[in-house]
Amino acid sequence: MFTIPKMWEEFRESSDFVYLRQSNKNEQYLICFLKSITDTNTLNEQILEFISANNGLHFNELFEELPIAEKELSSDWDAIRNKLLVGYVAVQHAASAQTILLNASISKGRTVSKPEIEFNVEGSKEALVESLDVNLNLIRKRLPVASLRIKELQVGDLSKSRVVICYMEDITNEQYVQTCLQRIGDIQFDTISDITIIQQIIEDNSNSIFPQMLGTERTDRIVWGLTLGQVCILVDGSPNAILGPVTLEHFFTSYEDYFLPWIIGSIIRMIRITSVLFSILASAVYVAVLTYHGHGISNSFLPTIIASRINVPFPPVVEVLIMELAIELLREAGARLPSKIGQTIGIVGGIVLGTAAVQAALTSNFLLIIVALSAMASFTTPVFRMSNTIRILRFPFILFAQMWGLLGIFLCSVIVVTHLLRLTSLGMPYLVPFYPLRLKGLTDTVIRPPYSKLHHRPGFYRTKNPVRYDNRKSNLKKDIDE
């Protein structure tokens, strides 16, 4: 047991540590706090003023009467120290180790703002912020039901980060909840500064370039996922959350699709999927055709390609790699620079480099168009981490196309599909409902169905309550989108 003077010695070297003595008619108290993380108004107006005005109360009576919502009584030094480090005020009895811990932490941070990554035209404009309490408030506000469960853990030997798992008690499969609790509880790492660190640690296959949990900053998407049977994980200090389990099709589905008429939403979703395939395969097909399959080019189109490449000294694969790397450099430069400068660099750099590359005969006009379209097509992916995966995935396809032509593209596709077949997300197959085939689960994949067809939750989540609403009653009055 620490003696009272020595108990606080490890804090005395810090200039923001404050150590006060307070006496009343009956007892003496030691009041300790870190002023850098303590709200002075709460300290002065609700704690110190109350103790001074009620100097006849005994220690236990003082604990009962103090007008602070979050308070506890403890004599465990580790618990006292941990509470002090997150903004609590410690009121210690001078004659014993009994300590009253009062929450007076400062709540500072940016206000709720618009989504910056998942920008949307229609729908909610609320995004998560760095404060975990604010984020939970946003979720609770949108889902005011008693069955919403919130489990809090502390992760990180040094950071002591607050990690929260949210789920619907009457909907979510208990196996997913226990898997998340077990994996997060087993984390051995000193600092958890962002949710992406937890995501990489708890994913089923951390060596895969495909994300196995869905990151989002939008509260409406979180609530939608919770009502479907997913688990949401948040970390204090991170403006993002992750949802799981997920399937591959979730990364090509924008939540804004559900704000549009179902026909328009379905067409946009199909355009998005087609764009992703074009982004991955276009440059590889260019290399394969010009290297091995030139005889397959139409006679009416062949003179255009020959005229475009007549002065280019490089083989198609070198030409493609030069342009792809130039696009990636521009993309990284635009992302790392301040927003206004980054946009200017991206536009001006693209025009100048493209024009100069063609005039210097380093590339052809035809390839420049293909690479530019591929870059734009990759931006249609609504999830940033999957967008990065698609950017990287183009390069192995290009190399396989150089080695074996169209056969190489087929072999690379087989390798990628085989890898996807083996992936899981919290134990759920990554390609479900396509593999294993779940016919009812295909309802909301490539086609965004009308709401009259969304009366059941996807079966592959194995939810406790698969029914969202009684479709027999809804059939009495047709939906407006039918």
Unreliable stretches covering 5 or more consecutive residues:
none
How large a portion of the residues is in β-strands, by DSSP E? 5-15%
Main β-sheet, spatial strand arrangement: 1-2-4-5-3
- Find the count of extended strands (DSSP E, 2+ residues): 12
How many structural units, i.e. domains? 3
Helical proportion, percent range: 40-55%
Protein name: GerA spore germination protein
Keywords: Membrane, Transmembrane, Transmembrane helix
Transmembrane segments: 273-292, 342-360, 366-385, 397-421
Family: Belongs to the GerABKA family.
Give a written overview of the molecule.
This protein has 482 residues and is α+β, with helices and mostly antiparallel strands. The chain has 3 domains: 4-103, no CATH class; 132-246, no CATH class; 273-428, no CATH class. The chain contains 16 helices and 12 strands. The chain has helices at residues 4-7, 9-12, 40-53, 59-65, 77-84, 132-142, 174-185, 195-202, 219-228, 262-292, 302-309, 316-336, 339-359, 365-378, 384-422, 471-474, and strands at 17-23, 28-34, 71-74, 88-93, 99-103, 148-155, 161-168, 214-216, 231-235, 241-244, 424-425, 428-429. A 5-stranded antiparallel β-sheet has the order 1-2-4-5-3, with helices on both faces. Strand 4 (88-93) and strand 5 form a beta hairpin. Helix 12 crosses helix 14 (365-378). It holds the Pfam family GerA. Keywords: Membrane, Transmembrane, Transmembrane helix.
